[in-house]
Amino acid sequence: MEIKIELRQYLVFKGWDWKPAGDGKNIKVKVCPFCKREKWKFQINASTTQFRCLSASCGIKGNLYSLKVAQGDARDVGKKTKHIDLEKINEWNKALLESPESLQECLDRGLTTEAISHFKLGLRRKDGIRWLVIPHIFDDICWNLKMRALDEVDDKDKWRRVEGYKSVLFNADAATQNNEVVIAEAELDAVSLWIAGVKNVVALTCGAGTFLPEWFDLLHDKEEITLCLDADEAGQKGALDIARRLGYNKTKNVLLPLKDSNDVLRDLGPDILREALDKAERFEVAGIVSFDDAVCRRLEKFSQKEESGLFTPWPTVNALLGRRGFYGGDLIILSAKYKIGKTTLALQIADYLASSGVPSLFYCLEMGTDDLIDKVVSCVMRKDIDFLDPVDYTMARYILQQKPLYFQDKAGVYNASVDDIFTRIEDAIKRYGIKFLVFDHLHFLCRSISSVTGEIGQVTRRFKELAMYYGIPVVLLAQLRKIEGKRAAKSGDVKDSVSPATDCDRLILLHRDEILAAGSGSTAIDDDASDLDEVTSADDEVLSPKTAVKFAETRYSGRRSTTLWYDGPTATFYELDQHNRPILPPIR
């Protein structure tokens, strides 16, 4: 009896006592993990991984994935209890099979009555329009559905989906029952592949550009993944992103002869669709591209109207970034004197990007997660960080709900080696689809006794390689060496770095002037002192809120600078108007 590798690995991981059941199909576990009876009643099918407890008082059943979820070893892709009544799904399925006109339209698209019955595709009449209902069923529960108009409507109204329900992979049960899985871009593409004989197929349900963390959990340990997304630019870009996250070594890519799998099935037939799958190839070696392909990519970028990089909340800073922005593969070193606000500035950028839907990770070794959350809430609520209350946190959570902003937890910092931290960062990039990374800070990570400078260089290059491999911009915070006097920092002042200009793509330095000398007993010596809310004393060193943002080194433009206003109590940087006053944007 052959036992599926994934099942065998999980049994070893759990340390359960098990043995063949004697029927050549199942294995049995001594203790049921649910009812805890020690009577060898818990059986798992060796090939499908479906399980069931044969004890009359238990009788629980499911598959390997739901077993992992119940044991706390996987995240539940259907953790929300909200779902769609299967009786309705069956009712709509029956209506489609009994409607000659609608059924024929589906058959004309290459679908079959067998596939319509298997996937419970249905017909629903709503708003005077006939809709093809495509349910998303996983583990005998309908978590969501999409509807495609069968009647003539505007293209923008052709598709609908139920809002507020969980997004799961279409035909996700196939992923729990197979170690080799094919991923299609959309539901009807998966149905088409199933008709062509590819039964181990699942489909994305949120478009080619979305691959949720729960889906990563379901698929990352599969032996082989074949990506059969659309042949257009969006589909191939999505395929490359999924391959990068799941691993190039176990993913293959299909180049379809027509736009999508359904088009191929309908216009060319199932044999051509299977042939395209058989010709699936590994992606090119990451980081290597031919001259011809590189020129084609460059031309495509020129033809794109939208900016391809990431930008900040401040237009004047974006003007310095130019058309390129923070581009995938860029390493940006951000440095300043102590207490100038480099952590706050980087955190505000990450928060801004996450609020725009860009998954962002802020990995900080120097501050705890609670401190970082305080900064974000203070910025969002525009309230002094020392006076935040539970209402502020609740409101900020509501404002930022579902925004993909991630932080390291305590376990990601304590007693972790350089290799440990890079492994966690890469795991986060793969699972959460991180597109913007901030690491705070370089010198806290590198504390070599024998050669700090050498270690700084190695780790900096490692961050650059990570940025290049995953195609994301990385902002690396770094300290300055001690600067005599009150002059602003220069590129050569980055601590323990021989040549920062060669280590990064952009070097950004922050500077704020002192407006009250420490121990002088004098009053403010800067015209801006009257604008400050800070309480000053004879022994305080007070810094101007005006913050120079200087692009000291860049591969893409000359040295330039702008000025922002730093509000310390709310941990926020603002633009300045023509009168050098902070511009407060609308509250989110």
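Next protein, fold it too.
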Amino acid sequence: MAKIITENFKVETTKETFSTFDSPNSSIAADFLSGLEAYVNQTSGVALTSSERSDIQAIVETQLNTYTPENSYYIMGSSVDKPNVITNTQYEKREFQRRVIFGNKISNSDIRYMFYKNAWTTGTVYQGYDDKVDYTTQAALNTNVVTVRNTEGDYDVFRCLEANGSTNVETGIVNKESTAEPTFAGIEPDSYEHITEADGYIWKYLFTVRAGEDAIFGTSDSLPLPYPSYGNAEVIASTKEEISQIIIEDTVTNLFTNFIFGEAGDAAKASDVGFQSIEQSITDSNISDITVSATPKDGFLLYGASDSYKEMYLLQKKSGANKTILYDILSSVTIPGAELKITLKIFASDGNVATNYSNDTFQLVPKIHVTRSTSTGTPCVAYGVIDQFGTLKSIQFMERGSEYKYANATLGLPSPLVNSYTPSEAAQLRCVLSPKGGHGSDPINELGMSRLSVITNFTGEDVLIPDANTYTKVGLVKNPTFTDSILPTQFDNRSSIVIQGDVTGTAISGHYVQQNITLGTVAETITARIHESVYSVSNDVTTIYLVDYYGDFQSTFQNGIIFIKANLSTTTASTLTINNASTNVTYGKYSPYSGQVLHFVDFDPIQRLASRKEKIKFIFDF
């Protein structure tokens, strides 16, 4: 019994995590209020007062937060020193939370979905997208998805739809190596496909990653998905569930030997026919009779029976324009006595204007029948390409169709072949369907993005990020609480004591502050560590900033003497005095030990400076 956890499970887990970084309740409440206000004004002509607006929004936000509570995430810096290497234990997580120094709130603008970088490389054999291939591994995706660095330093992302390769004109051997780099400039504006004729590859453009985004969120092997578009908006708007490719799994060799109308030099010209004339039907203004000719070759004759070429397409390539027209052949007549000429009846209403045809290239190509999944979708229109030996080599498209969930394809057989083969004997074809929604509609699922990059910056330019001393740990904490019930975007969690005069020579960074407190019959010692001391000349006071001020005591600093020690084991101490604890002592607002530590790392001490910025980046792989 096979049991498979699909990439959808990992991606959905990643999506759920990503969504918890969003805080939409206030926006939802504001939108509701705007709608309500417009309704009240329209129906009763009464405008809501500012007090009513405030009350209504508060009620809605309260209900939303009750039934769909929002989450908050912070990346926090902790621990001025590194007494040991951290381990994944309850003790270490508590120590991290006990010693928090500062932190930044994380929003969904600070997080990105990530996918693997895979630079297009000439000479590589890539694989066309196949819905029967497991693309959950990086190795599999690397055979099909490439990144191309453009002239602006950005990354254009392409998916290989078909890897047809190039054919040796003498041997017929196909070289599957990719030799022509796909470019955004070369894409077709409606389908966002890029056909590289030199190597026969067809690429689908998905989106572009800006160099600036890569610099912020990228890693050596990964790139961030564009935010907030989650792809390319134009591509997403144009996507459809289509036929990605039709694979020839088996076919009769040289099946179309007697249908090589052009020069037998290569596949590009094997189906060529020359334009001779065109006439508008006198009985139907939508139908024209077009006469084409084949290239003379030794032993080659046209089939003389009527409708011998009916089960084929006439393909017209417009001269000087990137446009191809495919005509369904209604009937065919081989002209008796004429040299290799056929008259084909096609749907065309401009048969009386020969110049619309006389300068163009024509081919007579095999017809491919593709079933439909729905009655409302656009049908797929496909045709076959034969080589100079008459073997069906690839399937090309005029229209890949839409709303495809399931499809089968069969080779149309002209009447001279019907008595020798059934369609399934002539060729075994398999339709490859695009991902749900179409290529590029949902890059997160299509590329199996189960990685997230979360970043923040600690800089001395920010008022609430200390620009002195060190920190040795950072961690991602979910749903911490704060003593004022406000979720700050940034916080300095140090406590502080204000002392009259310049005492910076006594309150030295790295020393300890202690105060002996008696609570009833219980005596205890409050301990904290000096982070920095700052003297204000204008106010003639020194602010002593403290860390590690939570521990095995319950008291807070009171009026009276405090002791300054170089270390906790010494009995030698200097003294300072707190004159008014209620106004001269403040504490950080992060509630100690609150929140869940989801991820934390340690490192050698990083010195905080006013001129320095540290970028903290976490990569989570689900």
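About the second fold: The chain has three domains: 71-239+434-484+597-622, 249-430, 494-587.
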